[in-house]
Automatic annotation (TrEMBL), chain A:
InterPro entries: Fe-S_cluster_assembly_SufBD, SUF_FeS_clus_asmbl_SufBD_core, SUF_FeS_clus_asmbl_SufBD_sf, SufBD_N. It holds the Pfam family SufBD_N. Residues 27-157 form the SUF system FeS cluster assembly SufBD N-terminal domain. Belongs to the iron-sulfur cluster assembly SufBD family. It comes from the Bacteria. Residues 175-397 form the SUF system FeS cluster assembly SufBD core domain. This is SufD family Fe-S cluster assembly protein. It comes from Ruegeria aquimaris.
UniProtKB/TrEMBL annotation, chain B:
This is Fe-S cluster assembly ATPase SufC. Residues 2-248 form the ABC transporter domain. Signal peptide: none annotated. The keyword Transmembrane does not apply. Belongs to the ABC transporter superfamily. Ycf16 family. CDD domains: ABC_FeS_Assembly. Keywords: ATP-binding, Nucleotide-binding. It comes from Ruegeria aquimaris.
Length: 426, 251
């Protein structure tokens, strides 16, 4: 079907500024992704899936200017013993990174695997992304697969002793970065992946994760204080039997952030938890879009998203659980809540369930409200000052999402960031 | 200790006068009880004294040790030594009971210019006091009042009172929702805190709480005023004859 003229024009305008990288073994995947993108067209405001978030600034040929992050401030996870992989404006920086060596895992740059004929990543790069367009197109992910300039392929065959930490640095005020990572967790292997840092003025990041039977991947991400950034991220995850995927994202400020999670539970008894805590102030716009497909028996999925919004900030949640025929004993849970600290902020939520099996337990809830005045008075009547009481209740509101992080020290790090955010606002 | 003069209060949202000239003085070391029919303004009095929003004082004053309570924020009143045990203690999901107690205690100490209590000292105190109220370690760890039974919530109020060591304690229908054993436990907790420097104002519908917490003075409140004041025998009179006789006599 031909695209509407407006969409066609916008798509070609964007494509005219991009060039397919010289890419050996990912070339075919990139060309296929480009074809998909041409067929879908870039997102527009009339697309139902972009009803609550304006995609305009994500599809202009040039990235809108964004101030770089003030240097010298302590970064997330600084105290964590981890293997650091650093990207500056979307380009791997070997000087700033640790040697890509760690027992139980092989890490290569996407660029380096491109020249190999046979490589496991060939069967993953662009594959989960391609599967992720049914039933909803995700053109910015196809764009990513086609044009990603860098990224890493992480092959987890054992249990590495420390987390793999992807660190993004922002150096140029007009940087337009596209990164694509692929991760394969082999049967019984387990890894923790961290992501943090302001990446670029505009950041399009895609991660494809394939977890084999009995494998485990924990993901903790912090999207930080680089307020003018625009980011669109996709995580495509496929889970085998008895495997576990737990992902948590902290988002603090940012004029535009859209985080999509597309999860497929394809093996029996797999577990997928995706969670997010976000705090936004002023012209902040944050969108969590989640699509979880249950396609096996006895799987569990949880979506826990909490947003604190003030001074006219906007939060969006679009979350769906699809239970396919035969996916019996599915246990699906979804909660999205916002705490609106004033009347100007808004929360737009679209929770969805679509169920084709008859023996399932699925629940979803979405609420939006102000701080609990009764609880506030209770705290104050015990001597806790107003500001402190408000902060305590705000953190308590976010706690259900933060509790999804299994590693206590990482969770503490996230909480201290949130406390910092609250402290800066009096 | 607590001096209330000619206190008039109306609801902010609707033009409804609730308190119509309350006069009351609670001396240090004494337990005063307020009884009265539903809607007489007992709970309103407790909320106004502790600083809850939604009430407007139109006339009169309330002082704690000579300091004007009505000008202070709720947290300032707490730091000055006022404590209200809630009729309906509030559940706060996500805030651990211990964190709550410690935050409150240290906030008050800080407001009074005292040093914060060390974690070890705090733990020691809270354990001893919780034990006396039969509050187990699990209740201390759980979020404030979440999933607590009615009795547990009231015991938790008394634990807060014991930890914060206020000068003036107001107990708003602390006996409501309690079985006999729980009431005894709560009363013991209150009695343990009775001393020469501390005043109590016990709001209740029933004599039975006053069997366990012996009052020095009993007031009857009706239609926003204290209409009669007497000794403990007044509570017995209410128990035996209801309020009708007293109200008829006053009118």
């Amino acid at each position: 079907m031909a695209l509407p003229a407006q969409k066609q024009t916008a798509t070609e305008a964007l494509l005219s500024s991009l060039h397919l990288p010289e890419a050996g073994c990912t070339r075919a995947a990139r060309e296929a992704a480009l074809a998909r993108l041409r067929e879908m067209g870039v997102p527009g405001r009339r697309d139902e899936y972009w009803k609550y978030t304006r995609p305009d600034s994500l599809i202009t040929p040039d990235a809108p200017r964004a101030a770089t992050f003030a240097a010298g401030e302590p970064m997330m996870f600084d105290a964590v013993d981890r293997l650091k992989i650093v990207f500056v404006d979307g380009v791997f920086d070997p000087e700033a990174s640790d040697p890509l060596e760690l027992e139980g895992v092989q890490i290569e740059r996407i660029e380096d695997i491109c020249c190999k004929d046979i490589h496991w990543a060939k069967d993953l790069y662009g594959v989960l992304e391609a599967r992720g367009h049914t039933p909803v197109p995700r053109p910015l992910a196809a764009l990513n697969t086609a044009f990603a300039a860098d990224g890493v392929a992480i092959h987890v065959t054992g249990t590495p002793s420390k987390p793999i930490s992807l660190i993004y640095q922002h150096a140029s005020e007009t940087s337009d970065a596209i990164l694509h990572h692929v991760i394969r967790v082999e049967s019984g292997a387990a890894v923790t992946v961290l992501e943090n840092g302001p990446a670029a003025s505009r950041f399009n990041k895609c991660m494809e994760i394939d977890i084999a039977d009995g494998g485990t991947l924990h993901h903790v991400r912090a999207q930080g204080r680089d307020h003018e950034r625009r980011a669109v991220t996709h995580m495509f995850t496929r889970l085998g039997e008895g495997s576990v995927y737990k992902s948590f994202t902290l988002t603090v400020n940012g004029v535009l952030t859209r985080n999509e999670q597309v999860v497929e539970l394809t093996g029996d008894d797999a577990v997928a938890h995706v969670a997010g805590a976000c705090v936004g102030d002023g012209d902040f716009h944050h969108d969590d879009t989640v699509f979880i497909t249950h396609d096996a028996v006895g799987c569990e999925s949880r979506q826990v998203f909490k947003k604190v919004l003030r001074n006219g900030a906007t939060g969006v949640f679009q979350g769906k659980i699809l239970v396919k025929p035969g996916a019996q004993k599915t246990d699906g849970y979804q909660i999205s809540q916002s705490l609106l600290l004033d009347d100007d902020s808004q929360f737009l939520a679209k929770p969805e369930l679509e169920i084709y099996a008859d023996d399932v337990a699925c629940s979803h809830g979405s609420t939006s409200g102000a701080i609990d005045e009764t609880a506030l008075f209770y705290l104050r009547s015990r001597g806790v000052p107003l500001k402190e009481a408000t902060d305590l209740l705000t953190l308590a509101f976010l706690a259900e999402a933060v509790d999804e992080i299994e590693d206590k020290s990482l969770a503490d790090d996230i909480v201290s960031r949130l406390e910092g955010w609250l402290a800066r606002r009096s | 200790m607590l001096t209330i003069n000619n206190l008039h209060v109306k609801l902010e949202e609707e033009d409804k006068q609730i308190l119509k000239g309350v006069d009351l003085t609670v001396e240090a070391g004494k337990v005063h009880a307020i009884m009265g029919p539903n809607g007489s303004g007992k709970s309103t009095l407790s909320y106004v004294l502790s600083g809850r929003d939604g009430y407007e004082v139109t006339e009169g004053s309330a002082q704690l040790e000579g300091v004007d309570l009505l000008e202070m924020e709720p947290e300032e009143r707490a730091a000055a030594g006022l404590f209200l045990a809630f009729q309906y203690p509030v559940e706060i999901p996500g805030v651990g009971n211990m964190t709550f107690l410690r935050t409150a205690l240290n906030a008050q100490r800080k407001a009074r210019g005292e040093e914060e209590l060390s974690a070890a000292d705090f733990l020691k105190q809270v354990r001893t006091k919780a034990k006396a109220l039969k509050i187990d370690a699990d209740m201390l760890k759980r979020p404030v009042n979440v999933g607590f039974s009615g009795g547990e919530k009231k015991r938790n109020e008394i634990l807060q009172m014991a930890m914060l060591e206020p000068k003036m304690c107001i107990l708003d229908e602390t006996d409501s929702g309690l079985d006999v054993d729980a009431m005894k436990l709560v009363a013991e907790g209150v009695n343990a805190l009775r001393d020469a420097g501390r005043g109590f104002l016990v709001i209740t519908h029933y004599q039975r709480l006053l069997d366990h917490i012996k009052p020095d003075v009993v007031h009857i409140m009706a239609d926003g005023r204290i209409v009669k004041t007497g000794g403990p025998e007044l509570a017995l009179e209410v128990e035996n004859n209801g309020y009708a006789d007293i109200l008829a006599e006053v009118n």
